[in-house]
Amino acid sequence: MFSSIIAIYRKELQGYFASPFAYAIAGIFWLIAGFFFLSILFGPQGIIAQAAYRDRLGISEPLDVPYEALRLFLGTLGSLSLFLLPMLSMNLYTEEKKLGTLELLATSPLTNWAIALGKLLAVATFYLTMLLPLIIYEVMALTASSPPLSATLIVSGHVGLLLLGTSVLSLGMFVSSLTDKTILAAILTFALVLFLWVIDIIAGNLSGAVGNILSHLSLVEHFQNISQGILDPSSIVLFLSYIFLGIFLTAQSIETFRFQRY
């Protein structure tokens, strides 16, 4: 099974790095992220301007500039990923259906789990590649401060971002297995993830066990905890559960497709 996962992973990853569309998504991601990074640090309402304003007012409590900048920037990257990642996941199975290669995969000796896991690892690797340049200039800018930003905080924040992104991609992979229309897959994935993103607002209007359960399912609440350096095991478990759920549902969806072909 491991060799099957690696084979699918290499094929899918080569496809992403050869795709002009994937580079366009990465370029948009870097451009918008770079703009917000500069705005958060150096904008008229940025963290540095706020720190200077507090100094002029004589506020004794110092503002932790690198921490606040990283927290705000990670939140921005999380929101940006919500909009862009459905466009990376929309082709994972819809393209196979259009080209007719899904039938070959479904009738091959490869298991549905191996195919789904290989595809998810490939698109998550491409997402990690999109994050790497941002991590480099975050480290260059924020660790130059005195005192420097904690490396643990940087690592935990980006691990949270990667888990969030992989959760979105896993759910998007399942949605793409349901249709052969790429735009529809992107829209449905965005709607699903948006619901999971703001579910805590809905939970806030509900009381009792239902409200508590919905609040616990919120992607944004758990991501904010991790991005602030709060490594709550329940947050890690939640993201891993979403990732597993996406792979499981995708495997079942392809199994249904395989059954219908016999």
Detail the topology: elements first, then pairings:
Blueprint (H helix, E strand, L loop, with lengths): L1 H16 L2 H23 L4 H11 L7 H25 L1 H9 L1 H6 L5 H31 L8 H26 L5 H23 L3 H9 L2 H9 L5 H29 L1
Report on the architecture of this protein:
This protein is mostly helical and 262 residues long. It is built from 12 helices and no strands. It has helices spanning 2-17, 20-42, 47-57, 65-89, 91-99, 101-106, 112-142, 151-176, 182-204, 208-216, 219-227, 233-261. Helix 4 runs antiparallel to helix 7 (112-142), helix 4 (65-89) packs across helix 11 and helix 8 (151-176) crosses helix 9. 34% of the residues are buried.
Q: What best-fitting shape do the alpha-carbon axes yield? A: globular
> Main β-sheet, in a few words?
none
Percentage of residues assigned to helices: over 70%
Mean pLDDT reading = 85
| Strand-residue proportion | under 5%
Number of helices: 12
- Poorly predicted regions are none
Q: What is the rounded distance between the termini? A: 24 Å
Helix-strand sequence = HHHHHHHHHHHH
What structural class should be given to the helix and strand makeup? mainly alpha
Q: What is the CA-based Rg, rounded?
A: 20 Å
Beta-strand segment tally: 0
Quaternary assembly: single chain
